[in-house]
Amino acid sequence: MKTVCPSALRLPLALLAAGLLSACNLAPIYQRPDAPVPATLDGALSAVPDEFSVEPVSASEWRMLPWQQWVEDARLRQLMETALQNNRDLRVAIANIEKARAQYGVQRADQLPTLNASGQASRTRTADDLRSASAGSSTANQFNVQLGLASYELDFWGRVRNLSESALQQYLQIEENRRSVQLGLITDISNAWITLASDQQRLQLARDTLATREHGYSLVQRMHQLGATNGLVLAQNQTAVETARNDVAAYESQVQRDRNALQLLVGGPVSADMLPQAPAASLTALDLKKAGSGQLLDGATPKVATQAATTAMTQVPARLSSTVLLARPDIAAAEHSLQAQYASIGAARAAFFPTISLTANVGTGSNELSGLFEGGNRAWSFVPQIRLPIFDNGRNQANLDIAQANRDVALAQYEKAIQTAFREVNDALADRITMQRRLDSQTALVASASRVLELSQARFKAGADDFLTVLDAQRSLYAAQQTQITLLQAEQVNRIALYKALGGGVDPVQ
């Protein structure tokens, strides 16, 4: 056994360098596909007066508030921060990121040689009958120490690099999925918060209505005892009271269910000081504006964003470039999946070409431990290997077909994600355009119903009408007030839906 010398290493090092320098990549060149949607989000364009010229707003000219500023209520922000720490779905997403990061590390390690050190010692006794008659039995010792280069593939065709690239894109995809879960959690908590606040309003309205109807029932009951009204009116009043009492019980149950849903999203107990304490008139702000000049959703000229402005109207440019949708986490995840499939095609194509691998060892051996590192006991070996696929029953072609089909599937999913996002934004904008008019109309309707109730009560006291007119006015006002609460809730839900549809204020993965 001889020691390894510099000249003995020249050949494997030369082959290694040649492999690295001449390596090529058989993966198709990735280019971001054109978005299969119109160039601009024109859902708000109909709100802009014809006399204004509307210039498209690019993604670079447009920004969105981060969720910490988007949420105005301090209790709701605290609730979200707690949820981001405790929510189990988000924990699963983070664990998946760690798993993907580790898998990428394993795949990336295949691009570099692996060195292993080993040591071995053995002591062997040979039986008498197995040796020559003159030699007799014997005991032999053997000691070995080796440093070896495991079978290392020279990546001429980019197979290993493409597998590593595919693992990287899958890791980035999972990171975008985590961002999508986070955005979904933020908006789900916002919706749950708005729902709880609205149901608390409905409950309070039902309690006030019950108190009013009980008072009216007591009055009619006394009138009935005096013979001033008939039993039908009394029974109708009692029906109205029981209906209101049933509403109170139903909303008490609904409020408790809303609290349970909120607690599930947060992932832990929710204290009373973290629950909504006031009507959900303006719990969230959405400041979506153009950096320069241009028309906004309400048709007004742009102005410096203020707290009042952001709460009064969601500001979205009338012609916002569709490229802003590419920042959505679900679309970014779909694109990373598409890029991973491009890399997989490169790995599948490389399987058609020869594979060259290197194995080398250098070490020393001796039959005495004290002589293990003496000059004459060193040894080395170098084993290059080439493998050329000749006949595989179509396996490599089938694997390539699978990779290309997966690429086509990923492309279709990417395009579908963009189309879905485009529809969600335009749907939210379509509702946003008419929301303020609906709220104004409903406010006027509530005021009108209140006036009708006042007049009917006055006519009843004057003896011009019976109490059935008052009952009918009470029902109309109660229904109008419930609808008003529902519209106020819908306005807030629309803000949340638009914020989510536009990708939210969660930092994208770099």
Please supply descriptive tags for the structure shown above.
510 residues; alpha+beta; two-stranded antiparallel sheet; disordered N terminus; 8 strands
Structural notes for this entry:
The radius of gyration is 38 Å and the shape is elongated. The strands form three sheets. A four-stranded antiparallel β-sheet has the order 3-4-7-8, with helices on one face. The chain has a two-stranded antiparallel ribbon with strand order 1-6. The model is unreliable at 1-15, 18-22, 44-53 and 287-314 (pLDDT under 50). It has helices spanning 6-22, 67-70, 74-86, 88-109, 159-225, 231-266, 307-312, 329-350, 395-462, 467-501; strands at 40-41, 62-63, 115-126, 138-154, 289-290, 320-321, 355-366, 378-387. It has ten helices and eight strands.
Overview in brief:
The protein is of the alpha+beta class and 510 residues long. It has helices spanning 6-22, 67-70, 74-86, 88-109, 159-225, 231-266, 307-312, 329-350, 395-462, 467-501, and strands at residues 40-41, 62-63, 115-126, 138-154, 289-290, 320-321, 355-366, 378-387.
